[in-house]
């Protein structure tokens, strides 16, 4: 099952530019950022479509994993579509709306997705593209991927709300390097600095990311959602878990999936989880 949400150029005399494609196969959804000829740079309409897609995913009980990728291999997403700056980011009021509503809305929806989100990174992953990758749970890249936030010559700083996820992911020192120098990092350097989960041969990147999504989808879905929720809690708040939190985490014992998993292990068969 596939669907496409076109981006709309803010200038009425121009044809639609960019789109977000959604393909569903079983329990896995693939979201493709597509802006041909611009290494999948993001328009305002594309940011809005990402927010809408992930808002819908949050209500989908059958979903078990989402893969986010760019169209083709030239770019995951090469930041914002600069062609829109004059019409949608020329005043402080527009800039505030763009960051507080458009970008933050999309990033918050992706970050809040209750199932794991895997970023498949090929080619350029810059600016807003790296912001999207930073709110995903796993980041799998080909050797040819390049990551960075080269905005130092554009006259504006990275929005505070957007910076928070980059700092949480790789730490303030790496964020400082990216922002001050504006250097694009090769995949191996990005891996060493904590920006990536793993790096594979370019020819295998798509296969590896989709295989990871399938492994996730084959697991107990309620347990996977609980793992994501608990990992986010511990990452955001380093304080010890409260007794109430600990007791709540044992709710898996009431599920059908728990009984299915234990029985399959004892019977030496592959479990088929129901999500109940």
Summarize the structure in short.
With 276 residues, the protein is an alpha/beta fold.
Structural class comes to: alpha/beta
CATH architecture annotation of the largest domain? Alpha-Beta Complex
Spans of at least 5 consecutive residues whose pLDDT stays below 50 are: 7-15
Task: Characterize the main sheet.
Answer: 7 strands, mixed
Radius of gyration: 19 Å
Q: Give the amount of beta strand, in percent.
A: 15-25%
How would you state the average pLDDT, rounded?
91
Provide the number of structural domains: 2
CATH topology of the largest domain: 2-enoyl-CoA Hydratase, Chain A, domain 1
| Distance, first to last CA | 24 Å
Assign the CATH superfamily of the largest domain: 2-enoyl-CoA Hydratase, Chain A, domain 1
Number of strands: 11
CATH class designation of the largest domain: Alpha Beta
Helix share of residues?
Answer: 40-55%
Order of helices and strands: EEEHEEHHEEHEEHHEHEHHHH
Shape, please?
A: globular
The order of strands across the largest sheet is 1-2-3-4-6-8-11
Describe this structure in words.
The chain is globular. Mean pLDDT is 91; it is low at 7-15. The chain contains 11 helices and 11 strands. It has 276 residues and is α/β, with parallel strands linked by helices. The protein is 44% helix and 18% strand. A hairpin with a 2-residue loop joins strand 2 and strand 3. A 7-stranded mixed sheet has the order 1-2-3-4-6-8-11, with helices on both faces. Strands 5-7-9-10 form a 4-stranded mixed sheet. Helix 1 (44-58) packs parallel to helix 3 (92-111) and helix 5 (160-170) crosses helix 6 (172-181).
């Amino acid at each position: 099952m596939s669907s496409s949400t076109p981006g709309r150029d803010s200038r009425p005399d121009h044809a639609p530019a960019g789109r977000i494609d959604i393909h569903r196969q079983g329990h896995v959804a693939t979201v493709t950022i597509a802006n041909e000829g611009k290494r999948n740079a993001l328009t305002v309409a594309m940011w809005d479509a990402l927010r809408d897609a992930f808002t819908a995913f949050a209500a989908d009980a059958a979903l078990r994993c989402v893969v986010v990728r760019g169209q083709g291999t030239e770019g995951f997403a090469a930041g914002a579509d600069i062609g829109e700056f004059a019409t949608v980011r020329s005043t402080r009021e527009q800039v505030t709306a763009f960051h507080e509503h458009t970008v933050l809305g999309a990033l918050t929806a992706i970050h809040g997705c209750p199932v794991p989100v895997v970023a498949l990174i090929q080619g350029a992953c810059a600016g807003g593209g790296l912001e999207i990758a930073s709110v995903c749970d796993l980041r799998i890249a080909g050797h040819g991927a390049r990551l960075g936030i080269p905005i130092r010559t554009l006259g504006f700083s990275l929005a505070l709300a957007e910076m928070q996820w980059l700092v949480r992911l790789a730490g303030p020192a790496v964020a400082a390097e990216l922002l001050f120098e504006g250097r694009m990092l090769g995949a191996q350097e990005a891996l060493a600095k904590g920006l990536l989960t793993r790096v594979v041969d370019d020819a295998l990147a798509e296969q590896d990311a989709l295989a990871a999504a399938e492994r996730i989808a084959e697991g107990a879905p309620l347990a996977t959602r609980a793992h994501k929720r608990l990992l986010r809690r511990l990452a955001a708040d380093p304080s010890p878990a409260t007794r109430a939190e600990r007791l709540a985490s044992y709710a898996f014992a009431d599920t059908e999936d728990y009984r299915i998993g234990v029985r399959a292990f004892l019977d030496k068969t592959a479990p088929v989880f129901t999500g109940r």
